[in-house]
Amino acid sequence: MTVIGGKELARKLSQLPDRIKMNVDRANRQSGDELVRTAKVLIPVGDDVHGDGHERDKINATQNADGSVLVDFGPKSKVIEGERGPRPFVNPALAVTRKRHGARAKRAVNKSVKELFNG
User: Rounded to the nearest 5°, which phi and psi values hold at 40?
Assistant: First the structure.
């Protein structure tokens, strides 16, 4: 039994992982940048750890070769109260952006499939 258009479908499906990786990597970068912006808004400005007055500038994101994004929250993100004290701006920033990040990644996968099969 032969399937009409089976080879074309197989060719398109073989292209799908690369297209998904490209779009999801872009979505991860956007989510990382959004997380950095949110953390910069939430960071307390009062006590300066190193005395240079630039705590917001120390929060940055780096995209790795595998598409993941590493966010460095700077020296104020360290736990300073007891063994496992609160992180007053890291955890809220993660909580606020978690749902949007998941939705953005899901949209990136859907976009990849639509681009591949619709033109």
Answer: -65, -30
Residue in the block written with tokens 């007055």: 53
Domain that holds residue 80: 24-118
Q: What is the pLDDT of residues 16-39, one digit of tens each?
A: 999 999 999 999 999 999 999 999
Residue 11 within any structural domain of the chain: no
Q: How far apart are CA 51 and CA 32, in angstroms?
A: 27
For residue 65, give the 3-state DSSP assignment. coil
Provide the whole-model pTM: 0.79
- Residue 56 region by backbone torsions, left for phi larger than 0, else alpha for psi between -120 and 50, else beta: alpha
- For residue 106, how many other CB atoms are within 10 A of its CB? 12
